[in-house]
Amino acid sequence: MSSATFEAQRAALADVVAIPVTPFAEDGTVDQDAHRALLRRLLEGGIRILTPNGNTGEFYALSPEERRLVTELTIEETGDRAAVLVGVGHDVPTAVASARHAREYGAQMVMVHQPVHPYVSQGGWVDYHRAIAEAVPELGVVPYIRNARLAGARLAELADACPNVIGVKYAVPDAAKFAAFARDAGLDRFVWVAGLAEPYAPSYFSAGATGFTSGLVNVAPSVSLNMIEALRSGDYAGAMKVWEQIRRFEELRAANGSANNVTVVKEALASLGLCRRDVRPPSSTLSEDERAEVAAIAAGWSI
């Protein structure tokens, strides 16, 4: 299968890759109505690619049944309005089953979460992704890379075996390492998505990224779109104006090892009356002071 087969998927990745939250009802289950409403809000706001079962969607706190539900809700609500990149992971059989389920329901791509196994060898990383990619040759596959030790040559090796590996969500917080990794793997061979969202997007775009992930987009789609429009036109000063606008919000998300990464997004949505603030352990809700600060930031974005 030639890479030309995946032209539409490659184009879709070069954008604001939204990672929707998974809203919970008062009884703790997935709030399907709120979920659909939030997805519609993203689509109506101009978002063209969604990642159900990403980390902002609390992937690791969802049951297998809930992950399937979130995939199905997203694909149903999206229709042909956007591309769907489904997050998969855990052990190989589980990831393969999730990828096949995504294919069956009409997703175009899967994102393979960074393995959380404590003993990840570079060869094992290739084997893990290869097993998943080979199970769904019709789908575009996007490894989510958080491992600073992984060599770019390993990604090239994976893509040699699996031509459906078409993009990379690169989430190592080091712009110089990203620039080197992308060139070692093949800068033009993959679509490079800045996997640490808006705070890292300008520096990663300067090194070759053409898309970035976003959790903030749940709250303010127009803010994220403003940034990518500036980056696409080479207006780094304009992109940094957006960066300054979102800086405090993203600092709150990143504090203490990103303990409140999802919590801050859901708190902002709750302040706008869009969903409950509830998150699942090991995340937790914010203090009253932090809630007030997040609400003030969201209100200031003129959403």
UniProtKB/TrEMBL annotation:
SMART domains: DHDPS. Signal peptide: none annotated. It comes from Streptomyces longisporus. Coiled coil: none annotated. InterPro entries: Aldolase_TIM (IPR013785), DapA-like (IPR002220). This is Dihydrodipicolinate synthase family protein. Keywords: Lyase. It holds the Pfam family DHDPS. Belongs to the DapA family.
